[in-house]
Design a protein that fits this description.
Blueprint lengths: L1 E5 L4 H12 L5 E6 L18 E5 L9 H7 L4 E4 L5 H4 L4 H20 L6 E6 L16 H20 L4 E7 L3 E2 L7 H7 L8 E2 H14 L6 E2 H11 L11
Helix pairs in contact: 1-7, 4-5, 7-8
């Protein structure tokens, strides 16, 4: 399987790369980014680092260059972790946040779908607080949460129009714990407003998304408990990244 990963230098994207390099069912891991992506330092001895290919894309809203498309073509799946986090969005112009979160993603799916294998499985990393219903009145981060909801709606509509060749699911975890990202009472209380929302280990999140690309989309969306269940079944104990160094 040829797997594309975006946001490959971020917290979740790095873990997706690490586990994909350790997964024998994946033959090629293509990190699509603005700058070169290196093998994660904690990849471990079981990782086949020769599978990683770093592909540079400078403009994410224009037609992808032929040189880039050549390296992406015939991919079987994509895990899209590229976005601006809610915390970082507070210090950015909202138009720039929207461009990265909405324009990059929708244009990316359309571009990849045109050159990918069929079926092409696209897993989008979102969050439990993101709202698809654009008529709702939200009490915090309303513009951000509704905008990210429009991303989800757009990619799901695209998949519906191009089914079964294009298959999409959205991962919607609450808290994600991992190295440098401990559980916190404040975050737990926020996520509790959205129902029973367990914290998900970053390795379980990454493994669950990889399995959806490998074995087929089983559910949409994938909530925290789904990601926890799928990921824990896919992982060996030695595949988990330690919570502390």
């Amino acid at each position: 399987m040829r797997l594309i990963v975006t946001g490959a230098t971020g917290f979740v994207g790095t873990e997706v790369i690490r586990l994909a390099l350790r997964n024998k069912a994946i033959t090629s891991v293509i990190a699509l980014a603005r700058k070169p992506v290196e093998v994660p330092a904690n990849a471990g001895p079981d990782a086949d680092t020769s599978k990683l290919k770093s592909v540079i894309l400078e403009d994410w809203t224009k037609p992808y260059p032929e040189s880039v498309k050549e390296q992406l073509k015939d991919a079987d799946g994509c895990i899209w972790t590229l976005a601006v986090t809610p915390f970082k969005s507070k210090d950015m112009d909202f138009a720039a946040v929207t461009k990265i979160c909405f324009d990059y993603t929708v244009h990316g799916l359309e571009s990849l779908a045109a050159i990918a294998e069929s079926p092409f499985r696209f897993v989008y990393t979102s969050g439990v607080t993101i709202e698809r219903d654009q008529t709702k009145t939200l009490t915090f981060l309303a513009d951000y949460r509704l905008m990210r909801g429009r991303v989800e709606n757009a990619i799901l509509e695209f998949a519906e129009k191009h089914s079964p060749a294009i298959q999409v699911t959205v991962a919607k975890p609450g808290g994600i714990e991992g190295p440098g990202h401990p559980k916190s009472d404040a975050a737990t209380s926020i996520f509790a407003q959205f129902g029973p929302t367990p914290w998900v280990h970053v390795s379980e999140l990454a493994a669950a998304m990889i399995q959806q690309c490998l074995d087929g989309i089983t559910k949409e969306p994938l909530w925290g408990k789904d990601l926890q269940e799928i990921g824990s079944k896919a992982l060996r104990q030695e595949d988990y990244v330690p919570l502390t160094g």
